[in-house]
Amino acid sequence: MADAASRLTALAEELLSEPLPVRIRAWDGSESGPPDAPALVIRHRRALRRLLWKPGELGLARAWVAGEIDVEGDLYEVLDRIAGLLWDRGADAKDAVHPVRDPKVRAFARGLLGFAGPWPPPAPPAEEVRRRTGPLHTRRRDKEAISHHYDVGNDFYALVLGPSMVYSCAYWQDGGTLEEAQRDKLDLVCRKLGLKEGDRLLDVGCGWGSMAIHAARHYGARVTGITLSREQAAHARKRIAEEGLADRIEIRVQDYRDVHDGPYDAISSIGMAEHVGSVRYREYADDLYALLKPGGRLLNHQIARRPERDEEAYHIDAFIDAYVFPDGELAPVGRTLATLEEAGFEARDVEALREHYALTLRQWVANLERHWEQAVRATSPGRARVWRLYMAASALSFERNKIGVNQILAVRPLDGGGSRLPLRARAWTEDADDADTETETDA
């Protein structure tokens, strides 16, 4: 078919009512668009069939995962230019270009019919989650969702995350490495929790054991780590044994709803609450409150979204839900704070780390791209493409303030209302010798 790129560009610009900010290179070798712009490469017209059957994000995601569309040039620049078509139009733009009754959308669909090729629609890529029906956030469904995301191979995650094996936002200083920034984040959590020799720490969503190891090795804590991922648990136990810390750390494959061996002196929840879901979040907060001693501290490290005008209309992006975090949900930080306080916690400190996560994600993308062939062998080409797209797009979302991440320090008050926290705010930022002299108060 002659000059598919020009025809596709014309269709897209008619839909968007403005010039396309990227070049289009089509399967027939044709090319259209600004010559100095990065290119969106449509390798197979099957990608258009996906878009016709699943308009919008999910159709594009399936084509990307299957390798039917790609980018030539800087991935961040392509994503930034395309996302700008939506973000720069306002909060309702994503919905405004999709309604079936919109005449521009209908004209765009009719135009694609001439390119799409033989039916029926292509099957979804193997990497797309096959979820059960039924209520959200049952124990079984949560376990399946966690397995989909985390049980994709420890070797793959080691290539992406690096030696720290920490899969959450790092805490950066100028000139530091990823490993140093992750170490500093773990240490920040331990200091906020006020850990000391012999304290019992519950690490909810313990990942590959990095937080547990840091708390036990550097602060003398006795740690119980829980995860629903068997691959994570196996890797964490191996690391703990090699560190000689098996007498201080226990790793369990266990749902947070099944932990009943409190009280603990402290609880860390780092990148876990995003999996809990709004229907369970108050239950989650209640459970953590019950597991803490009076005066015990909770450090909740959680991604947050911007509030919606209509909170009932919130839904997670189709690509993220189908390929990355099935059933995951983000909440505004204010709602998280309110739920924790409704459960009985007193919120004592909130620290926003949004820019830190953008830096972290860019490092993970660089690791993946640097070890691309190994990563593909460790999992699959489609899975590697999922992670590259979601991490790069997420980095831009943090940079544009579409999402954020916050550490909330909360305490279970004593019966008389005391907190046992230092009188001076943010004492964990002081030098160790100075922090030790701060007065803790029960009043």
From TrEMBL:
Residues 156-396 form the Polyketide synthase-like methyltransferase domain. InterPro entries: CFA/CMAS, CMAS, MeTfrase_dom, SAM-dependent_MTases_sf. Its EC number is 2.1.1.79. Keywords: Lipid metabolism, Methyltransferase, S-adenosyl-L-methionine, Transferase. It comes from the Bacteria. Belongs to the CFA/CMAS family. This is Cyclopropane-fatty-acyl-phospholipid synthase (EC). It comes from Streptomyces globisporus.
